[in-house]
Write a structure and sequence with these properties.
This protein is mostly helical. It has a domain of 82 residues: Arc Repressor Mutant, subunit A (Orthogonal Bundle). Helices cover 51% and strands 8% of the residues. Strands 1-3-2 form a 3-stranded antiparallel sheet. β2 and β3 form a beta hairpin. α1 packs across α3 and α3 packs across α4. The longest helix is centred in the last third of the chain and has 24 residues. It starts with a helix and ends with a helix.
């Protein structure tokens, strides 16, 4: 898990971008134990900005017992999360008659159904999200 990317993601999830250290630690613990998926995601995001340093680059400020994401921090996070631009589609030359056979819907293979593992993972994510929301509501 990439610590700096995780901090940016946590701070941006708060409405004003500010979180007390207690909240950061709690959210960090939840994400750190959420499984391989989160670690892989943060690695992919961090790869887009290899020299990321949230404090020296002014992406996060330390303010009275907590941290707050800056406008630059939000911009860097948006850059990391942006999908790479798709290459221009290649225009195929015009063909008078189609040479490929026409496939009807009943000839297509069935769509894969979500596996039990994926379903359990989705349910765990949902339970964790609900627990975070309850914890935030109780902290208020």
């Amino acid at each position: 898990m990439n610590f700096q990317v995780t901090v940016l993601k946590i701070l941006v999830s708060y409405s004003d971008g500010f979180a007390l250290m207690e909240d950061l630690k709690r959210d960090m613990a939840i994400l750190a134990t959420s499984g391989r998926e989160w670690a892989d995601r943060t690695k992919r995001l961090a790869a887009r900005v290899p020299d990321l340093d949230i404090f020296s680059q002014g992406l996060v400020e330390r303010i009275s017992g907590g941290w707050q994401i800056t406008a630059n921090g939000r911009a860097v996070l948006e850059f990391m999360e942006a999908r790479p631009a798709a290459p221009e589609p290649i225009q195929a030359p015009f063909v008078e008659e189609a040479t490929a056979p026409i496939v009807t819907p009943n000839q297509l293979p069935p769509l894969p159904q979500p596996t039990d593992r994926a379903k359990r993972r989705r349910e765990r994510r949902e339970r964790r999200r609900e627990a975070r929301e309850r914890a935030r509501a109780n902290a208020s």
